[in-house]
Amino acid sequence: MADLITVDDPDDPRLSDYIGLTDVELRRRREPVEGLFIAEGEKVIRRARHAGYEMRSMLLSSKWVDVMRDVIDEVPAPVYAVSPDLAERVTGYHVHRGALASMQRKPLPTAAELLAGARRVAVMEAVNDHTNIGAIFRSAAALGIDAVLLSPDCADPLYRRSVKVSMGAVFSVPYARLEAWPKSLESVREAGFKLLALTPDEKASTLDDLAPHRMDRVALMLGAEGDGLSTQALVAADEWVRIPMAHDVDSLNVGAAAAVAFYAVTTGRPEN
After folding, report:
1. 244: number of Cβ within 10 Å
2. 218 and 118 within one domain
3. Do 130 and 258 fall into the same domain?
4. Same domain for 40 and 138?
5. Is residue 82 one of the residues assigned to a domain?
6. Distance of CA 108 to CAs 55, 173, 204, 253, Å?
7. Is residue 272 in a domain?
8. How far, in Å, CA of 62 to CA of 260, rounded?
């Protein structure tokens, strides 16, 4: 059972995990190094625990203590009860959901470990917007993507904004980082995957024509918002694929495009 501790000093060192949550650069540097991430909101906290992440501490406004009582009774980590004003002074924003938890990260698997048991994977290149990362992971979880591979310069899926947008789906889909880009794509191909580069280029085959759902193993490559996949990534791909557009729309947001493409590559997928 956790200790419920009332804190009224924003400089209390016990709240250090929650300092400056809106300072993106600070959190990017600090969280992976210290092995922590922040889960925001009741549902996300519960999903993180269900996924096996260990809780370091929890920060609750007073009205959320009763809501989270079962969690408080189950975890050994300290729980800090604070006023909404103090929570805002510590974190840098108004904590609308009233509940935050600092969670311990797990070691990431290797790409080879994930590929060994997968049939459908998403590969992201330089996707550094946390909202897009969260949206893509949510679609990946909902539509049956087995794993996600990230280029070295992709944003952190466990950054607070990514976790929140995904509604905790980042805990459901295993992911790994590819150490060398785009050289590591060759190891994906060697594992038996067809590398499909999603691009609006008219030279690309449509998803309907290519019918990737009939392929045995597919790795769908997604690029950053605006820039799309790099020339090097496009050259490394086996096929270029596109989503047909109407009404002179040239492309979709990468999060929306990912959802459409995930459905196309997973519908009717081969049974294990």
Report:
1. 8
2. yes
3. yes
4. no
5. yes
6. 18, 12, 34, 28
7. no
8. 42
- Of 104, 135, 169, the residue at which a domain comes to its end is 104
- Given 81, 104, 127, which residue is the final one in a domain? 104
DSSP letters for the chain: ---EEE---TT-GGGGGGTTTT-HHHHHHHHHHHTEEEEESHHHHHHHHHTTPPEEEEEEEGGGTTTTHHHHHH--S-EEEE-HHHHHHHHSS--TT-EEEEEE--PPPPHHHHHHT-SEEEEESS---HHHHHHHHHHHHHHT--EEEE-TTSPPTTSHHHHHHHTTGGGTS-EEE-SSTTTTHHHHHHTT-EEEEE---TTSEEHHHH-GGGSSSEEEEE-BTTTBS-HHHHHH-SEEEE----TT-----HHHHHHHHHHHHHTTPPP-
Q: Which of 229, 215, 237, 216 is nearest to 258 (CA)?
A: 229
Give pLDDT, residue 196: 98
**Are both 91 and 17 inside the same structural domain?**
yes
Supply 193's token pair.
Answer: 């995957």
Summarised one tens digit per residue, pLDDT across range 81-116 is 999 999 999 999 988 778 999 999 999 999 999 999
Residue 73 shares a structural domain with residue 58: yes
Residue ranges of the chain whose pLDDT lies below 50: 272
Q: Where in the sequence is the domain holding 75, given as residue range(s)? A: 4-104
Note the pLDDT of residue 94: 87
Whether the pTM exceeds 0.85: the reply is yes
pLDDT value, residue 271: 54
Give the pLDDT confidence of 241-271 residue by residue, as tens digits: 999 989 988 888 999 999 999 999 998 665 5
State whether 51 and 95 are in the same domain.
yes
